[in-house]
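Appendix C reproduces, verbatim, an entry submitted by the partner laboratory led by Prof. M.T., so that reviewers can inspect both the input and the predicted structure.
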Amino acid sequence: MYRTHNCGELSKKNEGEKVILSGWVHKHRKMGGLIFVDLRDRYGLTQAVFDPEKCKNYNLAEKIKYEFVIKIEGQVKIREKANLEMKTGEIEILVNEIEILSEAKTLPFEIFDAFKQEEDEELRLKYRYLELRREKLKENILFRAEMVKYIRKYMEDRNFIDIATPILTVSSPEGARDFLIPSRLHPGKFYALPQAPQQYKQLLMVAGFDRYYQIAPCMRDEDPRADRSPGEFYQLDCETSFLEKEEFFNLMEPLFIELTEKLANKKVWRKPFPRIPYKEAIEKYGSDRPDLRFDLEIKDISEWAKKTSFKVFNEAEYVRVLFVPDGENFTRKEIDEEFTVVAKKNGAKGLAWMKIIADKFDGGISKFFTEAELVELKKILNLKNGILFFAADTYNISALSLGSVRSLVGDKLNLKDNNLIAWAWIVDFPMFEKDKETGKIDFGHNPFSMPVGGLESLENKDPLEILGDQYDIIANGLELSSGAVRNKDPKIMYKAFEIAGYKKADVDKKFHHMIEAFEYGAPPHCGFAPGIERLTMLLTSENNIRRVVAFPKNQKAEEPMVGSPAEVSEAQLKELAIKLTGKK
């Protein structure tokens, strides 16, 4: 009796068994009168052998081609010469009968040729279902599924409840553009797709569900980036009642440790995760999501710089330096075409530098300083051979520009170990920030966060000095999640929105349900929402988010395979009481 098996699960212990296998023709070759086929499915590969004297319909075997879908019946045999690179390499199937289930026409690109992995992305996305047959993409998707399964078990073992929240909701100022959905039943009114279930999960806390989670879809009309999907993404949305911030950290840290060590087989840099204030992260690493796998730190040398005769330095608000040991071999071309470019992308007007070679300063701006000034700098920074990169500008630009240089140094010197995950919590974010163009004060983070010091801080402090009880969890240069201790006090909420330029009437119109709910007994609560795609990127060592999404949008926020976004008919627009006035 023939029994159905998956490719990849048979071994020597199955010798002699009669089996049925189905899958894709991965490789096809003829040697003498024998035809050898590597048959592939999701589970792996198995070699099938077609012998004209053993296979009833051998003539069909002669017709099969690359990526045909076939079904075979045969007997498991021990291979004369094992292929140890294959999981099933000790056995093969001597085929008795073959059935061609589906033919495949010539493919638009080779799937498994190792030298053809970088075709035009538009072509690959148009035929994404073919690209997903590639081993690495397949493994990424399977890893993501296994990770989500692990997360669900972790959460439910700790009494979290999976609760679905609405997809059609109301437009809200939450940091990104909303996707709007016109209502047929209410002409002129619009639903909004949720940027996150933020308000709903806080309302669930008021309802008494003290531990909520879901793998939540989030929709934001944002521009694409290598680490951000345009339009939609998923997150582990999570909220808890009655926990202090540190209690919440201690509850959730083991999840990330287990995902790193047990699922991804990587190492955790430090346990427990460091808590780094936002200000310290910016000043030391030039980023609020620093890559901590390597130790390079930015130093503030403004005091030294202002005493020098170099005009660019002594007139700047801040002068910072990044010293890179063993970086003296960076070429002038690398400095001009790579390091300077990334510094300028972060606001710098340029990138000053000089080297220390054989214990002497050389090149770049070294000629603008006296010997005594250079000796003092060397003493301050305890310098050895290497290169110094300088940024002279405002507080933010001087730090952020060198932060981008630091990241590039990590790439160039291979300081970023893919087998190490450097988790950390970034804490004490500014509650408010000033818009560079308008000068307007706005929220710097989640508007529903509790300000440190509560109402007293809002009433008495400079808004730009107020900290929010907010936190991010970061790793290896990625922000995995934002979170916060939430604001549950209507008075504090009104005052926080007032500072950001919202009138009481505006708050009541947008958030009346939140205000009213908090007046009926609201527990203290906190939470966060790590991104599923970014978490998968991190644990699979991918550097592009499209590599961990089954059907991603391209860099223009389009999906070439199905042709979205697309125009709709006049009849559909009329039914929704919408008239197009023109196109951009």
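The radius of gyration is 30 Å. Additional entries are available on request from the coordinating office.
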